[in-house]
Amino acid sequence: CGIDGENRPRLFEEGYCDKILHDSGQLERWKHYLDDNPRRLMLKKTHPDLFRQRHELIIDGRRCVAIGNPFLMDIPDKMAVVVHRAVSADEYDRKERAWMQCGANYGVLVGAFISEREQKVKEAARARGYLIIQLTSDAMTAMYKPGGVDFDTCAEGHMLILSPWPDKVANTGLTRQECLTMNTLAEKIAEGLFEKR
Fold first, then answer.
1. DSSP label at 24?
2. Residue 171: pLDDT above 70?
3. Mean of the pLDDT values across residues 141-152?
4. Other C-beta atoms within 10 Å of 119: how many?
5. Nearest residue to 73 (alpha-carbon basis) of 135, 151, 142
6. DSSP letters along 135-189, please?
C-alpha cells in the first residue's frame, strides 16, 4: 500500500536483502549468486517439496525443522559421521572407508560436518553422488534456503538439512553445546531413533 491507502507497485520484492560488502572477492561471489538466481528459482519451482520447511521430525525429544528430501530418513542404512580430535589417522582412514562404502551401497551419511575431516567426508560423498543428512545450527526462517552446492544437492534429492532449533530466528556463532547436540542427534538418526510426523 502507498500513501493514503493508494496501491502502488513495490520497488523491491518481499524479503529483499541488501548487503554492505566487506571482504575481497565478496562482490564477485554476489555477482555469481545473482547470475545463478534464475536457475535456482527454476529448481525451486520444479521441486517445491524439496524446499518446503517441514516440522515433522522428533529426534531425541527435539522437534526439528527440515528442508530437502525427507525420504532419506526412511533409508535404513545410515552412518553417523562424527570425528573427534582424538581420533588417530589410522582410525579416521578406517572410518572413512566405512562411510564411503555406506554411501556406495545407497546408505545415508549423517552429520553436522563441522570439523575439517568431517567436511572432507561430506565433499567426497557429494562428489560421488551419495546421500547426506546434514544437521545445522542455522536459523531456518521462512526465507531460508540452502546455500551454494547444498542447494544443488537438495535439488538433486540427495540431501536433507535438519535444524534442531525450530524457533531460532537469527544466526549466532556456533557454540560447543550446539556441536555436541548435533553430533548426538546424528548418532540417534543413524540408529533409527526418531519419529516422523
1. T
2. yes
3. 87
4. 14
5. 135
6. E--S---TT----HHHHHHHHTT-EEEEES-TT--S--PPPHHHHHHHHHHHHHH
Instruction: Name the E strands within 45-157.
Output: 54-59, 62-68, 78-80, 108-111, 131-135
Global confidence as pTM: 0.77
Please say whether the beta carbons of 163 and 65 come within 8 A.
Answer: yes
In whole angstroms, what is the distance from residue 47 CA to residue 194 CA?
25
* Separation CA 149–CA 77 (nearest Å): 24
What's the pLDDT band for 11 if we cut at 50, 70, 90? low
Cβ contact 160:146 at 8 Å: no
- Split at pLDDT 50, 70, 90, the class of 38 is confident
**The C-alpha cell of 184 is what?**
548426538
* Spatial distance between the Cα atoms of 93 and 88, rounded to a whole number of angstroms: 9
Q: Which residue has the cell 589417522?
A: 89
